Amino acid sequence: MIFDSERIQHLRQRYISVHPCEWPRILWVDHEYPAWKTHLESLIQTVPPLVQEDWLKRLVHSDDAQYMGAWFEMMLYGWLQQVGEVTAQPHQGASQPDFLVKTREGEVFVEAFVLRPPRKWQQSQSWKCRLWEVLEEIARPFIIRIRRAHCSPTFRRWDDLHLQVTNWLDGNSAEPFVWETEGCVLLLEASPWRTSPGTAGVIDTSEEAVWVDVKPLRDRLRKKYRQHKAVRSQGPFVLAVFFDRWDLTAEEVITAWLGPAQWIVDPHTLEVVRQDIDFSGLHYRSRRRPQYTHVSGTLAFYYGEMRRQPPFLAGRYVQNPFAKHPVDPMLWPAQAHFVVVGETEDGFEMKWVRSKGEGNVQGV
């Protein structure tokens, strides 16, 4: 239905002469992830025709945001089936949440969205993909570490770069490789790889430490919350976010709703006495009473195992301690749950509960 459709066939022909690093992601699924293909095909056949058409149209869209939105909705649809009966797009044509889940505690609405990387980072990925490929093709037994890599996506001198790096490995691999041309800056280091089959191995260490900006996540949570006012007041309502980026985690979901953690330290022993928050999250926009109380909790997802079996999503759940329509956090088959575990003089205490071991306690 998906991968034998006219749309996907047209997409294959359109990109037949284009380097794979510049393909839309649905073609990578087509070529590299057979387990994903099978799973997506099985999922789309279990929903009504209008939902099928919507998912298919967005999966093969030239806009990567459309693809990711449809991909996550489909994967989440499969993941939620572990909880109960799931209806996708329960109110066609209306502004309603993406899913209705019938659980052992009753019906729960779930609204999904994807948080993608900054545009500048996205634009650099095609070039990074080609760079990685060129380095791996070099027939020399070295481990090449990418220490710095910046270039315009329009760069095309790949054969020249291949030759330059090969000559460097043959003649002066003990020294760093520095290459600056056409606005590109590349810094590589190499070490012998004696167990290599004869080609280079590549390790990318070029990502620079950055200050995590929670604002994009906070803004999307606020927008999605406000989007379905009529529904969220009726019963349990859960937000589900997929992080299509490396710099955000479920910890940022906690920060967005509650505020960043603060460590209270004993000045004499330098030991952490307790953890607290600064009350800057969305729940505390009004000191008179908690805000955003009609969201029951938030599911935060990442890529799971990409080549084996479903569900292909790794998730965590953050409970809303102020929820007017709470649900049992353990309904969700997540890897960990951030939940209320007790009361304190100032309010309540929350911590991560994992399948193995316990997380750090955070007082709220």
Can you give a write-up of this model?
- Strand 14 and strand 15 form a beta hairpin.
- The protein starts with 5 loop residues before the first helix and ends with a strand.
- It has a 9-stranded mixed sheet, sandwiched between helices. A 4-stranded mixed sheet has the order 5-6-4-7, covered by helices on one side. It has a two-stranded antiparallel sheet with strand order 9-10.
- It is of the alpha/beta class.
- It folds into 2 domains: 1-118 and 216-364, no CATH class; 138-199, no CATH class.
- The protein is globular.
- Helix 3 (34-44) packs across helix 5 (64-80) and helix 4 (49-59) packs across helix 5 (64-80).
- The model is unreliable at 357-364 (pLDDT under 50).
- It has 10 helices and 15 strands.
- It has helices at residues 6-14, 25-32, 34-44, 49-59, 64-80, 119-136, 158-171, 215-227, 229-232, 250-257, and strands at residues 85-88, 99-103, 106-115, 142-150, 177-181, 184-192, 201-204, 237-243, 261-265, 272-277, 297-303, 313-319, 336-343, 348-354, 358-363.
In short:
This protein has 364 residues and is of the alpha/beta class. It has helices spanning 6-14, 25-32, 34-44, 49-59, 64-80, 119-136, 158-171, 215-227, 229-232, 250-257; strands spanning 85-88, 99-103, 106-115, 142-150, 177-181, 184-192, 201-204, 237-243, 261-265, 272-277, 297-303, 313-319, 336-343, 348-354, 358-363.
In terms of topology, how is this protein built?
Elements: H1 6-14, H2 25-32, H3 34-44, H4 49-59, H5 64-80, E1 85-88, E2 99-103, E3 106-115, H6 119-136, E4 142-150, H7 158-171, E5 177-181, E6 184-192, E7 201-204, H8 215-227, H9 229-232, E8 237-243, H10 250-257, E9 261-265, E10 272-277, E11 297-303, E12 313-319, E13 336-343, E14 348-354, E15 358-363
Parallel strand pairs: 3-8, 4-7, 8-11, 12-13
Antiparallel strand pairs: 1-2, 2-3, 4-6, 5-6, 9-10, 11-12, 13-14, 14-15
Helix pairs in contact: 3-5, 4-5, 6-7, 8-10
